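Sanity check

After download, print the first record. It should look like this:
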Amino acid sequence: MGSLIRKPKHGSMEWLRVRHRNEDGYPVISASDAAAVHGEHRFKTMHQLFAEKLATDPTVSETNEAMERGNRLEPTIRQWAADKLDTRLCEPEFMYAVESGICQMIATLDAVDEWSYDNNNAWPSLVVEIKTYNREWDGVLPRYWYWQGVQQAICAKVNSITWAVFDSTLSLNLYVQEITEDEKLRHIQAVHEFCWWLSVGEPNPEWPVSYNDVSVLYPQATDRSVDLTANAHLFTELADIQFQIKELETIEAELKGKIGALLGDAEVGTVNGSTAVTWKNQSRSSFDSKGFAKDHPELAAKYTKSSTFRVLRAKGDKS
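Expected structure tokens:
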């Protein structure tokens, strides 16, 4: 069952809270995080999303360059897309949500057809998702965009999403993603399963996991030990991999040394007339924190931040 939520200011704490938990306290999965539920998000793993949604308050992240670029260009791209589609588009006043059992899915849409608003119908017939892309558009929808489109279609009650992609060639490309009922059902089931594990309070042990993932899930060590005898083979495998890494690093350094010797003081090396390698001078400035602390100890102490983190070291690991 779909519902409309009056949209708070984009990026505000109220907006973040609406996308974090609903009024009943159940977790909310936003369309931008939809791919993480399937383990197909480019920037966020299943475990990272799990840790975020398990927290009482929403995660506040700083605006990066890509987000800033998108926010500033969005109104212009919206009008450009409207011209190319020969229609009128507007930014909706609502967020579109679907509540189902122990979870809620929500979508903040970039643009919808203005006709719907002119006819007092908040549900759109056309949804346009605006993206700025730092590479040339190749006509293939990235998987983390694909699942975002599926969830937007579910929440907005449409069967297609039109993508307006402004790419690195400074061109605006339109791409229509048609979404089937089977795709919608598959996503709904995945969200349900993810939220069920949230209700349990533990991640699915079958989810792929990285060291960064478990560091987020278990940030604080306690004074206890665990018997790992049944998994002793992992330490042998880890030692083998660490040895291989060191060997490869040694080989890498030797190959770079040979290439560097061939270049000498030359900046560019070519193969069959094409540039194969460059070895250019670079400069950088660094802050002398030790010197500053020595000359201005009180000021240095005032602006020094301490952080606590865990380091995993297997027995015999000298790193």
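If your output differs, re-run the checksum step. Summary of this record's structure: The CA atoms of residues 226 and 232 lie 12 Å apart.
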